[in-house]
């Protein structure tokens, strides 16, 4: 019955000449949206009609991304802030609700690596990765709960897209903290899908493989993340030869941020209206 109804809806959209990838009027929060996959997703979703809340630790870059979207004719507002701050997730949700009155989609994209071999990993390095990849998404969801559980928005489209990684699905040398956190986000996603389906909320994750962004390029002295007075080098070293070897990627190349963003569009749009509780792998075929 569900598939039959979905086919009816899709056929109706086609008959009306409506693009099922459109998200017109949807309010979408994207964390870590000033660079890489988050930035590409923000631009793409705005082009598809969304009002995009651009969150990033880097206030200048967040403003630049919002301005770029507006120059292209889209609607976007920068909401810079540190997702590691315990109070900021609730402030972000409140700010977006004040601005636009609703939230349709949350994309938990903010994150970084802080790698080390297991025997050299200290508690602080492990803890910060758990906080950005697990605690921050949880706090945003908790802040959203009064809005999304309100019976008046029962039929409003609502979805969550959480960013995982092949490190979380398959493990990765030197990434005991990151792999643990990215595995955790899959469990979080499935729990939300099970618990909030009654409120018409869909929850899905995307496990990315090698996507060519700042986080996967070789680290340099100029590419650092300044966080609470600590400088964290961003990137994966060139000597990670096994990871950089494309011979086990059937498409024989890394993906681009724009390609990664299209998976988010699929999960945010009516195209995936009956998809929930799953983890989509965007890997070029690696690990299949």
What does this entry look like structurally?
The chain is α/β, with parallel strands linked by helices and 288 residues long. The chain has one domain (2-282): 3-Layer(aba) Sandwich (Rossmann fold), CATH 3.40.50.720. It has helices spanning 2-15, 36-47, 59-71, 88-100, 123-148, 166-170, 176-196, 241-244, 257-268, and strands at residues 27-30, 51-54, 75-78, 105-108, 158-165, 201-208, 224-227, 230-233, 279-282. The strands form two sheets. It has a seven-stranded parallel beta sheet, sandwiched between helices. The longest helix has 26 residues, at 123-148. The model has no long low-confidence stretch (mean pLDDT 90).
Strand content: 15-25%
Q: From the helix content, strand content and strand pairing, which structural class follows?
A: alpha/beta
Unreliable stretches: none
Count of the separate structural domains: 1
Order of secondary-structure elements: HEHEHEHEHEHHEEEHHE
First-residue to last-residue Cα separation: 31 Å
Task: Report the average pLDDT across residues.
Answer: 90
Shape: globular
The CATH first-level class comes to: Alpha Beta
Q: Looking at this structure, what is the CATH superfamily?
A: NAD(P)-binding Rossmann-like Domain
User: Rg to the nearest angstrom?
Assistant: 19 Å
CATH topological fold name: Rossmann fold
Largest sheet: 7 strands, parallel
- How many E strands? 9
